């Protein structure tokens, strides 16, 4: 038996899919992932036209936890489908109607739904990637480090093959609060106090709190705007914690981007952060 066949299979699926099944994605909108149905607890699925066992990318939108929508995905669905992925974009309930912990629970529910239904859209339920921008970056990093969220949905980190937080500034909330307070931005400081609570609560919502050896935390690619002090500092803090726990992690500072264009340009041909993103994903799919 050729021992290389099993570990090459995922990347062969990816390469064959990108060559044969590129085209307009098959799209399903507003699928509920929780009961009773709530429009904020729905997701959209973009799938290749044929094939099965495609890797699945789950996208979490930003918007400060109080706004944003799953339909604001730019070129991402087409770019992922062209490369043989199923792309899932999720909505979640918004603050202040619910707490940020409850928002993270929504994300975990959406991951559970995706795991359960991936095969119906040609996806592999055991090959999920979680990623998000801004507030979505905080949520992605949290559910990929604090395993209580997935355990609450009877899942484990074993189904998550990689995490890509994009330009987040809230991986270490006590550090964030201290930075905001010393900056003199009283309006933002007040909002942060409302959103994130006291120091204990801040730690509970910080992904760096949960990073430790031996937890099977998935590999991370951390994308951030190269010259933004807040997202750069938080991204480096996350990288340091992951590497300290021997979790595979890389960081890519996007030069010439701002918070909006880094997100909007993901999936655009020739975009450097997009190239780093797909190289990261493909390297994981090539691994044993």
Structural class: alpha/beta
Q: What is the average per-residue confidence, as pLDDT, rounded to a whole number?
A: 92
Strand % is 15-25%
Largest sheet: 8 strands, mixed
CATH-level-2 architecture: 3-Layer(aba) Sandwich
Distance between the termini: 16 Å
Order of helices and strands: HEEEHEHEHHEHHHEHEHH
Enter the CATH topology name: Rossmann fold
Radius of gyration: 18 Å
- Order of strands, main sheet, comes to 1-2-4-3-5-6-7-8
Shape: globular
Helix content: 40-55%
Helices, by number, come to 11
Write down the CATH class.
Alpha Beta
Q: What is the CATH homologous superfamily assignment?
A: Alpha/Beta hydrolase fold, catalytic domain
Uncertain residue segments: 1-13, 15-21
- What is the total number of structural domains? 1
The total of beta strands comes to 8
Task: Explain what you see.
The chain has eleven helices and eight strands. Helix 3 (100-117) packs across helix 4 (135-143). It is of the alpha/beta class and 288 residues long. It has helices spanning 4-20, 76-82, 100-117, 135-143, 148-151, 173-183, 186-196, 199-204, 229-244, 259-264, 272-286; strands at 26-32, 42-47, 54-60, 86-90, 123-133, 160-166, 220-225, 249-254. It has an eight-stranded mixed beta sheet, sandwiched between helices. It is globular. The protein has a single domain (4-171, 206-286), classed as Alpha/Beta hydrolase fold, catalytic domain (Rossmann fold, 3-Layer(aba) Sandwich). The relative contact order is 0.13. Strand 7 (220-225), helix 9 and strand 8 form a beta-alpha-beta unit.
């Amino acid at each position: 038996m050729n021992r290389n066949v099993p570990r090459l299979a995922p990347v062969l699926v990816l390469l064959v899919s990108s060559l044969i099944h590129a085209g307009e994605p098959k799209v399903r909108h507003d699928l509920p992932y929780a009961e009773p149905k709530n429009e904020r607890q729905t997701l959209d699925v973009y799938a290749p036209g044929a094939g099965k066992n495609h890797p699945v990318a789950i996208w979490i939108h930003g918007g400060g936890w109080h706004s944003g929508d799953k339909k604001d995905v730019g070129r991402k669905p087409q770019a992922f489908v062209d490369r043989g992925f199923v792309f899932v974009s999720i909505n979640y309930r918004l603050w202040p109607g619910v707490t940020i912990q409850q928002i993270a629970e929504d994300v975990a529910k959406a991951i559970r739904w995706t795991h359960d239904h991936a095969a119906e859209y040609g996806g592999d339920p055991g090959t999920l990637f979680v990623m998000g921008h801004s507030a979505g970056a905080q949520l992605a990093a949290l559910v990929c480090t604090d395993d209580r969220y997935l355990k609450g949905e009877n899942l484990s980190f074993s189904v998550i093959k990689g995490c890509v937080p994009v330009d987040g500034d809230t991986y270490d909330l006590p550090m964030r609060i201290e930075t905001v307070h010393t900056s003199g931005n009283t309006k933002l400081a007040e909002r942060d106090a409302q959103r994130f609570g006291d120091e204990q609560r801040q730690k509970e919502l910080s992904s760096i709190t949960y990073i430790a050896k031996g937890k099977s935390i998935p590999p991370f690619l951390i994308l951030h705007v190269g010259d933004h002090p807040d997202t750069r500092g938080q991204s480096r803090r996350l990288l340091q914690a992951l590497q300290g726990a021997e979790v595979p992690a890389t960081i890519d500072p996007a030069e010439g981007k701002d918070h909006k264009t880094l997100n909007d340009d993901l999936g655009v041909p020739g975009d450097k952060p997009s190239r780093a993103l797909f190289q990261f994903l493909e390297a994981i799919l090539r691994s044993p």
